[in-house]
Amino acid sequence: MSEVAPAPAAPAPAAPAKAAKKKAAKPSKKSGPAAGELILKAVSASKERRGVSYVALKKSLAAHGYDVEHKSNHIRRAIKSLVEKGALVQTKGTGASGSFVLSRQARRCQEARLRQKAQSS
Protein backbone atom coordinates (compact mmCIF):
# COMPACT_ATOMS: atom_id res chain seq x y z
CA MET A 1 0.00 0.00 0.00
CA SER A 2 1.64 3.05 -1.11
CA GLU A 3 0.30 6.35 -0.07
CA VAL A 4 -0.14 8.89 -2.76
CA ALA A 5 -0.05 12.53 -1.84
CA PRO A 6 -3.15 14.31 -3.01
CA ALA A 7 -2.63 16.80 -5.76
CA PRO A 8 -2.46 20.38 -4.55
CA ALA A 9 -5.84 22.00 -4.84
CA ALA A 10 -6.17 24.76 -7.32
CA PRO A 11 -6.52 28.15 -5.62
CA ALA A 12 -10.12 29.24 -5.32
CA PRO A 13 -11.14 32.09 -7.55
CA ALA A 14 -10.95 35.47 -5.82
CA ALA A 15 -14.11 36.10 -3.90
CA PRO A 16 -15.86 39.36 -4.60
CA ALA A 17 -15.09 42.07 -2.05
CA LYS A 18 -17.45 41.88 0.88
CA ALA A 19 -19.39 44.97 1.79
CA ALA A 20 -18.10 46.59 4.94
CA LYS A 21 -20.14 45.69 7.97
CA LYS A 22 -22.01 48.57 9.49
CA LYS A 23 -21.05 49.29 13.06
CA ALA A 24 -23.80 48.96 15.58
CA ALA A 25 -24.99 52.31 16.82
CA LYS A 26 -23.59 53.05 20.25
CA PRO A 27 -26.23 53.78 22.83
CA SER A 28 -26.25 57.42 23.73
CA LYS A 29 -25.12 58.50 27.16
CA LYS A 30 -27.80 58.40 29.75
CA SER A 31 -29.15 61.75 30.61
CA GLY A 32 -28.91 63.00 34.13
CA PRO A 33 -26.34 64.52 36.39
CA ALA A 34 -22.92 63.00 36.84
CA ALA A 35 -21.89 61.23 40.02
CA GLY A 36 -19.83 64.23 41.17
CA GLU A 37 -22.79 66.58 40.91
CA LEU A 38 -25.02 64.18 42.84
CA ILE A 39 -22.37 63.81 45.55
CA LEU A 40 -22.05 67.58 45.94
CA LYS A 41 -25.84 67.90 46.24
CA ALA A 42 -26.01 65.14 48.85
CA VAL A 43 -23.19 66.65 50.93
CA SER A 44 -24.66 70.15 50.74
CA ALA A 45 -28.10 68.90 51.74
CA SER A 46 -26.70 67.20 54.82
CA LYS A 47 -26.85 69.09 58.11
CA GLU A 48 -24.21 66.95 59.79
CA ARG A 49 -21.49 69.07 61.34
CA ARG A 50 -18.81 66.39 61.01
CA GLY A 51 -19.62 65.62 57.40
CA VAL A 52 -21.18 62.79 55.47
CA SER A 53 -19.59 59.35 55.45
CA TYR A 54 -19.01 57.32 52.30
CA VAL A 55 -21.69 54.83 53.35
CA ALA A 56 -24.19 57.62 54.02
CA LEU A 57 -23.40 59.12 50.60
CA LYS A 58 -24.12 55.80 48.92
CA LYS A 59 -27.42 55.49 50.80
CA SER A 60 -28.39 59.01 49.80
CA LEU A 61 -27.57 58.39 46.15
CA ALA A 62 -29.49 55.11 46.19
CA ALA A 63 -32.51 56.89 47.67
CA HIS A 64 -32.47 59.30 44.72
CA GLY A 65 -32.43 56.47 42.18
CA TYR A 66 -28.70 56.21 41.39
CA ASP A 67 -27.53 52.64 40.73
CA VAL A 68 -24.99 52.43 43.56
CA GLU A 69 -24.37 48.71 43.26
CA HIS A 70 -23.12 48.82 39.66
CA LYS A 71 -21.53 52.27 39.73
CA SER A 72 -19.56 52.17 42.97
CA ASN A 73 -16.30 52.76 41.08
CA HIS A 74 -17.77 55.94 39.58
CA ILE A 75 -18.68 57.15 43.05
CA ARG A 76 -15.23 56.42 44.48
CA ARG A 77 -13.49 58.12 41.55
CA ALA A 78 -15.79 61.14 41.78
CA ILE A 79 -15.14 61.54 45.51
CA LYS A 80 -11.38 61.35 45.04
CA SER A 81 -11.43 63.89 42.23
CA LEU A 82 -13.65 66.28 44.20
CA VAL A 83 -11.22 66.11 47.12
CA GLU A 84 -8.29 66.78 44.77
CA LYS A 85 -10.08 69.71 43.15
CA GLY A 86 -10.91 71.17 46.53
CA ALA A 87 -14.69 70.97 46.28
CA LEU A 88 -14.82 68.49 49.18
CA VAL A 89 -12.74 68.34 52.33
CA GLN A 90 -12.06 64.97 53.90
CA THR A 91 -12.52 65.20 57.65
CA LYS A 92 -11.80 61.53 58.43
CA GLY A 93 -10.26 58.57 56.65
CA THR A 94 -8.19 58.26 53.50
CA GLY A 95 -9.02 57.79 49.83
CA ALA A 96 -12.74 57.51 49.18
CA SER A 97 -13.56 56.22 52.66
CA GLY A 98 -14.19 58.51 55.60
CA SER A 99 -16.30 61.62 56.03
CA PHE A 100 -16.60 64.58 53.69
CA VAL A 101 -17.72 68.19 54.02
CA LEU A 102 -18.12 70.89 51.40
CA SER A 103 -15.12 73.18 51.26
CA ARG A 104 -15.59 76.85 52.10
CA GLN A 105 -14.99 77.81 48.48
CA ALA A 106 -17.62 75.36 47.21
CA ARG A 107 -20.06 76.51 49.88
CA ARG A 108 -19.64 80.15 48.79
CA CYS A 109 -20.16 79.25 45.14
CA GLN A 110 -23.29 77.34 46.01
CA GLU A 111 -24.69 80.22 48.08
CA ALA A 112 -23.99 82.61 45.20
CA ARG A 113 -25.90 80.34 42.80
CA LEU A 114 -28.85 80.22 45.19
CA ARG A 115 -28.86 84.02 45.43
CA GLN A 116 -28.84 84.36 41.64
CA LYS A 117 -31.75 81.94 41.33
CA ALA A 118 -33.68 83.88 43.98
CA GLN A 119 -33.06 87.19 42.23
CA SER A 120 -34.03 85.87 38.79
CA SER A 121 -37.31 84.39 40.07
From TrEMBL:
GO terms assigned for molecular function: DNA binding; structural constituent of chromatin
Keyword DNA-binding appears in the UniProt entry: yes
Keywords: Chromosome, DNA-binding, Nucleus
SMART domains (alphabetical): H15
Lineage: superkingdom: Eukaryota
Main localization category: nucleus
Biased segments, Basic residues type: 19-29
Gene Ontology cellular component annotations, sorted alphabetically: nucleosome; nucleus
Localization per Swiss-Prot or TrEMBL: Nucleus
Pfam families: Linker_histone (PF00538)
Record Gene3D superfamilies: Winged helix-like DNA-binding domain superfamily/Winged helix DNA-binding domain
Region (Disordered): 1-35
GO BP, sorted A to Z: nucleosome assembly
UniProt entry tagged with the keyword Nucleus: yes
Name of protein: H15 domain-containing protein
Annotated H15 domain residues: 31-104
Family, similarity comment: Belongs to the histone H1/H5 family.
